[in-house]
Amino acid sequence: MNGCNGYYALSDSSPPPMPWFGMDIGGTLTKLVYFEPKDLSEAEEASEVESVKSIRKYLKSSSAYGETGHRDIHLQMDNLIIGKRKGTLHFIRFPTSEMNPFLALAKSKGLATMASTICATGGGAYKFEEDFKREVNLSLHKFDELDSLIRGIEYIEDNNVDKECYYFVNSRDQDNCQKCTYDFSNPYPYLIVNIGSGVSILSVYGPNNYKRVSGTSLGGGTFLGLCCLLTSCQTFEEAIELAAKGNNHEVDKLVKDIYGGDYDRFGLGGDVVASSFGHMNSKEKRSKVSKEDLACATLTTITNNIGSIARMVAANEKIEKVVFVGNFLRVNQISMRMLSHAMDYWSNGQLKAIFLEHEGYFGAVGCLLELLKNQEVQHKKDI
Question: Which of 45, 48, 135, 145 is catalytic?
């Protein structure tokens, strides 16, 4: 990986001082991982500064922070070895729009007294760099977000074997759809479709061999923005709840609306979307459509676009494993099942849609690992 490029000048092999955080500051959501050591000696516990103890106690005391911060307890990973220390990795998220309240909270917990560093990735690592320095006296070690993403995926998968990767069978059958574990022990080559505010698609051929091959500006941020505009919802969770209750057929024009049935020559079933939002040019249709239908159609439109691009890229790159990640997939089984069906159906069973339990946290994990890896590399150079 090449996201560090000699940025550091660390003089010994000991890890950075606690606490250890990794941040992925995205356009819509900020993801934070916190490593809690479980192997502290009595001497280490006695010498630990009060601000570190306060931060640890606060982060573990609750799964909610303020009105918008959440710790995903179900994703917590125990007994991990990071930086030669054994501990627990915690996963926390909050809207990037709430960065100022987050910094105020961090300051109130004593983070500003530590004059420490945080490793960060994502566009916000640049956008908010001066805010971190001014408000909480913290410097940001910045890492490339795609390097961090891949490193995070491979580390989490290696340490969450038989639990991290999964796929769906019978994805279109509500009653018989099943979630199955996927063996990712021989991964290369694979395609990563990272769905955040927008979408980036990467071809990965080995641990240090990847390239960005495509992307689209129509991603999770588009879905949330359009849903807020069309339905007056306020959050991603609310938008998904609305979509789950809606019917996109009331909004989208289907093949059967045009042909009166299937389009047999090209294998297009009557329920295939021919025109997203195609019914909305009708005043009568608009008067009958519900917020739920609009949310469902929006989710279907964004998901179908992502799936179509991913399928074409996979065919062009001659890759059969397509890994979908990103916080767009959080609490969003609708899109995961749609993507599963699309990959299988349109490739005649050649493509496999794979999903990961930790969804959008891989960039935050990866940049924390990059910090520690780069320190070890620098120490070897010094020696």
Answer: 145
